[in-house]
């Protein structure tokens, strides 16, 4: 983006862009339109400011800070303020009026009314609310948002920053978002006290320096065949769902929410010959963590499992709960815990993650698959696509649009063969 320099002020030859707002670091004032500009300080903090004439007097209004307040939101608020001023109103007086008697607890409630609708996952909705309620509200809840400062935010974060680093880091971001909303809504002014760069980063240690790795416990490759045999001996819909999850390397929520209209069983004539079917499970974008549709090639064994399942009238779910709804998040975990408990009761250590020595969990099975794929020499991108991970940069993804479906079909068939391989063979044979 080009700029004209006038007495230290950077006036753009064209309007700001979202990308520029995200990356700019040089101190200065970067103008957009309607008096709106982005102020970047030497410390690296950024704030939206609007210059506006109110009742013949020139004023500056703070509109919050990016990224909590994106460019589009700042533009919308600036336009609304200008319209109000042109009609004889006073945006500054409105902000001062709105700042009165707005507590942090009230700001959380109002902010989350709109924010929670963005989440497709009910678990994420509950996490957002619970972290704020459990950690922030006891300290900040009855404080007016206009009075909350950096020291107050630190009183929330410091007790858990070292022993619950990931939770504390997410909590900080959520407090920042609530306070940014409060600024845009006119309930407070000035810098955001929960901002990390150039603020809390100067006081608290970086999360990456103190956070302990908390990878989900995975199944050792040497234990896969024995564990698979144990799983297949179990009865119940949750056990079958866990089987399907293992075959497809899918996430628990994707399997539990699976409906029959997402499944194409493929050509029955092909299956009759004993060949691998061309069946596909298409998970819609609305149910995917990355927000993109994901196609899963189904092996012959996966199709046979689906065909063996009963169907419940009135329920759309493939793996349904006793009352017809979706299986709970704990149902698959419970199957694994029962398998582990039976092993320990028999005097065996069970199925422990080789690294952290904790019992394997459903999500860890994806790591087991990923390790197997790497050891078998499958291309990294193909394995990552099978796990529904983003591969490469935005530009690379724009040009690489193939999801390698048929190549992945062969890989998943080999993975299925590994699951059923006798334990003694699985430890020494490397599949082609």
UniProtKB/TrEMBL annotation:
Member of which family? Answer: Belongs to the 'phage' integrase family.
In terms of InterPro entries, this protein maps to:
CB (IPR044068), DNA_brk_join_enz (IPR011010), Integrase-like_cat_sf (IPR013762), Integrase_catalytic (IPR002104), Integrase_DNA-bd_sf (IPR038488), Integrase_DNA_bind_dom (IPR025166), Integrase_recombinase_N (IPR010998), Phage_int_M (IPR053876)
Q: Key word Cell membrane present in the record?
A: no
Q: Key word DNA-binding present in the record?
A: yes
Task: Provide this UniProt record's keywords sorted from A to Z.
Answer: DNA integration, DNA recombination, DNA-binding
Domain Core-binding (CB): from-to ranges: 102-183
Protein name stated in the entry: Site-specific integrase
**A GO BP annotation:** DNA recombination
Report the GO molecular function annotations. Answer: DNA binding
Provide the Tyr recombinase domain boundaries. 214-412
């Amino acid at each position: 983006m080009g700029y004209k320099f006038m007495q230290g002020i950077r006036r753009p030859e064209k309007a700001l862009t979202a990308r520029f707002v995200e990356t700019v670091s040089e101190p200065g004032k970067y103008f957009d339109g309607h008096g709106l500009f982005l102020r970047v300080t030497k410390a690296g903090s950024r704030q939206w400011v609007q210059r506006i004439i109110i009742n013949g007097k020139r004023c500056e209004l703070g509109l919050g800070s990016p990224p909590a307040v994106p460019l589009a939101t700042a533009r919308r608020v600036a336009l609304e303020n200008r319209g109000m001023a042109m009609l004889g109103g006073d945006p500054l007086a409105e902000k001062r009026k709105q700042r009165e008697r707005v507590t942090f607890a009230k700001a959380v409630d109002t902010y989350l009314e709109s924010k929670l609708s963005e989440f497709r996952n009910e678990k994420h909705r509950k996490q957002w609310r619970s972290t704020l309620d459990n950690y922030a509200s006891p300290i900040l809840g009855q404080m007016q948002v206009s009075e909350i400062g950096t020291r107050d935010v630190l009183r929330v974060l410091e007790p858990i920053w070292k022993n619950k680093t990931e939770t504390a880091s997410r909590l900080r971001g959520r407090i920042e978002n609530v306070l940014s909303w409060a600024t845009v809504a006119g309930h407070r002014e000035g810098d955001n006290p929960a901002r990390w760069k150039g603020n809390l980063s100067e006081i608290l240690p970086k999360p990456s320096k103190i956070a302990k790795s908390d990878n989900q416990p995975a199944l050792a490759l040497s234990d896969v065949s024995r564990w698979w045999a144990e799983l297949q001996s179990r009865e119940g819909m949750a056990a079958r769902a866990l089987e399907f999850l293992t075959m497809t390397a899918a996430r628990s929520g994707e399997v539990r929410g699976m409906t029959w209209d997402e499944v194409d069983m493929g050509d029955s004539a092909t299956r009759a010959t004993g060949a691998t079917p061309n069946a596909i499970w298409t998970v819609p974008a609305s149910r995917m963590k990355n927000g993109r549709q994901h196609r899963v090639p189904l092996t012959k064994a996966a199709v046979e499992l689906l065909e063996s399942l009963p169907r419940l009238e009135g329920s759309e779910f493939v793996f349904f709960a006793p009352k017809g709804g979706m299986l709970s998040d704990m149902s698959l975990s419970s199957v694994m815990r029962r398998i582990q408990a039976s092993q320990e009761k028999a005097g065996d250590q069970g199925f422990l993650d080789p690294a952290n020595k904790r019992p394997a969990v459903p999500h860890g099975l994806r790591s087991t698959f990923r390790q197997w794929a790497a050891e078998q020499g499958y291309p990294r991108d193909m394995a990552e696509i099978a796990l529904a991970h983003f591969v490469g940069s935005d530009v690379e993804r724009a040009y690489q649009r193939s999801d390698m479906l048929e190549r992945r079909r062969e890989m998943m068939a080999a993975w299925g063969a590994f699951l059923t391989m006798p334990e003694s063979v699985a430890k020494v044979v490397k599949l082609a």
